[in-house]
Amino acid sequence: MKPRDIIAKSWALTRKESQLRRWGFIHAFLRTLLNSKLFFYQGWLAYSYFVLGDPIGFGKIESVLWNNLPHWIVICLLVLFILLLISEFLFPHMAKGAVIGLAAKSYNKEEVKGGLVLAIYNFFPIFALHEILILSSFTTTVTLCSLSLRYGGGAGPIFCVLLAMVWFASNIMEFFWIFSEEAIVVKKLGIRAAIRQSFKLVISHLGHVVFLSLLLLVIVLRIIANLLMIILIPGIIFGLGFLLATLLPPVLSYSLSAVIGIIIIMLASYFFAYLEVFRQTVWTITYMELSRLKELDVIEAE
Fold this sequence. Notes:
Elements: H1 3-16, H2 18-51, H3 60-68, H4 71-107, H5 115-121, H6 123-132, H7 138-151, H8 156-176, H9 180-186, H10 191-204, H11 209-245, H12 250-291
């Protein structure tokens, strides 16, 4: 199948299968929520570090809330924050397994069901695979850099340079491991076997460079859009909080701004769900097509 046909088929499956979009929405919503909070915190840190010259430490936000809101509200917010943080860290891995499996079933003309089973049974290998390349994430690398600047003293900038180098190397490795998740879900391979097969497929089919470049372009466009929303969402929420605080009591103004922020994130995640499902479906169909071809190092099969 030609790259153009794969892209067309992937988009058709994305629009056709509502279950794919539901799991894609879960993935996009939790990731956007996590990245928005990380950006808000890192923005405050950058302002305190570069402008005020007094970087904030752990617990600063909590102490501000504790001094300005009723204590029972702060406790509820902290519990909700911890639960959300766990969900944002774990559930996207489950959603990715479900999207890959359901897309593969739809492509094979099978009944598209069993998303929860696919999510649960593929969670641990996908989670472990992601943790190997955890520094390929831009937000994770920025967070570690901020910790280095706050607590690393004079060695902080050196750690930031090292983290940037590891981030670059991790993204190169991630390119060659691009089919690992599909191998885990579709072929039920172990982590090592999935990585090995992904590396072999990419090396064996470098003639698809134009196709891969097109996919990478889609990924870059999604990342740019995601980053723009991550920047805008905390800004809108922060601005609304300040505006409403001048007109309403603090508790009511913060509550309204939080509700409005959640609604904005949900609307943004609805559009991100299409992009996430489409991107993942393209890779899934590509893997299934390439894995059916004869391996280039095999001359005669037994």
